[in-house]
User: What shape does this take?
Amino acid sequence: MATNSNLSGFRRIDIDIYNPENYNEDDVQNNQDDSMPNEPEIVALINSKRSMDALNMILRNPPLNSKNQQVKDAVFNLVMRVLRSFPNSAEIDNAVKSLNDESLDVLMKYIYRGFEKEPRDSALLLAWHEKVYAIGGNGCIVRVLTDRKRV
Assistant: This one.
């Protein structure tokens, strides 16, 4: 008999909570379901030529866990509007340099979704992709392509 056989702490664990029949998927995602950035505030930032602030604000809380496709589409259209608001390559470069790694990954997700949904903006998206890749490297692309959470 083992010396640790007198331990009985494991018997206090309620194993019934791990039963698959008790699992409720909605409980897991209630916190972040339909969070959407403040559209009027972002539009105001774009109109006041503060595109970098608008980009930071919209990438701060993306609807990654949302199952509502309308919310995801609305945020995507808002992101594309922000990306179109940058007038030149130098400002794009400054904006990308100001982002952290998580925001770079989210931005790359939106760029790839833009390639899929907005082919007329391919030149703009390629410029953004070039700048994000220069900062994020191959790791950014790999993380985006392997992540199951879509924007």
Notes: The two ends are 55 Å apart (CA to CA).
